[in-house]
Amino acid sequence: MGDIRIPVTDLGAIHSKIREEIAAAIDEILSSSRFILGPPVADFEKEMAGYVDTEHAIGVASGTDALAIALQACGVGPGDEVITTPFSFIASSECIVRCGAKPVFADIDPQTYNIDPAQIEEKITPKTVAVLPVHLYGRPAEIEAIMDIAERHDLKVVEDCAQALGAEYKGQRVGSFGVAGCLSFFPAKILGALGDGGMITTNDAEVAQRCRTIRAHGGRVKYHYEVHGLNSRLDALQAAVLSVKLKHVDGWIDQRISIAGEYEKVLGSLPMELPRTADNFRHVFNYYTIAVPDRRDELHKHLAESGVGSAIYYPLSLHLQEAYSYLGYKRGDFPNSEKAEGEVLSLPMYPGMKKEDVEGVAEAVMTFLV
Ligand SMILES: *Cc1c(COP(=O)(O)O)cnc(C)c1O
Question: What gap in Å lies between CA 14 and CA 190, rounded to an integer?
Answer without folding.
Answer: 11
